[in-house]
Specification:
Length: 208
C-alpha cells in the first residue's frame, strides 16, 4: 500500500478561542475581585501618610477656628438684638420727654398766674400774663414741628379743613374760609387735627 501523509483527526485539533493571549497570561491566575461589603486594604507610604495626617490636622484646626468665629459672631448679634430691643423700649417710654420739658415752663406760668389772681387783680396784667404763657406754649410746640392751621381767607381744602357750615355772603369769595371755629394743627407737615371752619357761599340771587 502506498505510503500516505499522517493526518490529524479534527477532533484532536485545538479549538480557536478567538483571543490572542500569551502563554504567561493564560497560566497566571486572575486576581479575585473584591466582594461587596468587604473592606479593602489600601497601602500608602509613610510620606503619604504623614502628608494626609498633616492635611487633616490643618483642616481640623481651620474648622475649630471657624467654629469659634461663629460663636463670637452669634454672641455679638445676640447682644446687639438685646440692646436694640432695650433702645426701642426706652424710645417708646421717653419719646415725649423733651417735649414735656418744654411744656413745664408753660405749666409753671399758668400756676403762678392762678396763684396771683384774686378779686383785685388787674385785668390788663392778667391778660398780659396769659398772652405770654400762650406764646411760650406756641414756641414749645413749634420747636417740635407742631404748627397751627388757621386758614381764614384761604380756599377750602377738604384734606386740611372740616366744614362746619356754609354761609352765604358777598364779603368773601365762594368756597373760601370766612371763619375758623377751631384751629387745626400739623406735626411735621402731617395733619393731626383739621381746622373746623365756616365756608363762604355765594348769596342767592335777588328775588324778582
Amino acid at each position: 500500500m502506498p505510503a500516505t501523509e499522517p493526518t490529524l483527526d479534527a477532533r484532536t485539533q485545538p479549538e480557536a478561542t478567538g483571543t490572542n493571549r500569551s502563554f504567561a497570561e493564560s497560566t497566571m491566575p486572575e486576581a479575585p475581585m473584591p466582594v461587596d461589603g468587604e473592606d479593602t486594604e489600601i497601602l500608602v507610604s509613610r510620606e503619604e501618610f504623614d502628608t494626609l495626617q498633616r492635611d487633616l490636622d490643618q483642616a481640623l484646626a481651620k474648622a475649630d477656628e471657624h467654629w469659634k468665629l461663629y460663636l463670637g459672631a452669634h454672641a455679638e448679634m445676640e447682644n446687639l438684638r438685646k440692646r436694640t430691643e432695650r433702645d426701642v423700649q426706652n424710645a417708646h417710654k421717653f419719646a415725649l420727654e423733651r417735649f414735656f420739658n418744654e411744656l413745664l415752663p408753660v405749666r409753671d406760668s399758668l400756676e403762678m398766674g392762678l396763684a396771683a389772681a384774686d378779686e383785685t387783680t388787674n385785668i390788663a396784667k392778667l391778660r398780659e400774663g396769659v398772652d405770654l404763657t400762650l406764646k411760650q406754649l406756641t414756641a414749645a410746640m413749634e420747636k417740635f414741628g407742631v404748627h397751627e392751621v388757621n386758614p381764614v381767607g384761604a380756599r377750602f381744602d377738604p384734606h386740611r379743613h372740616e366744614a362746619m357750615a356754609m354761609a352765604p355772603t358777598d364779603q368773601a369769595e365762594p368756597n373760601t374760609v370766612m371763619q375758623v371755629v377751631q384751629k387745626g394743627y400739623v406735626l411735621n407737615e402731617r395733619l393731626i387735627r383739621p381746622a373746623k371752619v365756616i365756608v363762604a357761599q355765594a348769596p342767592p340771587p335777588p328775588a324778582r
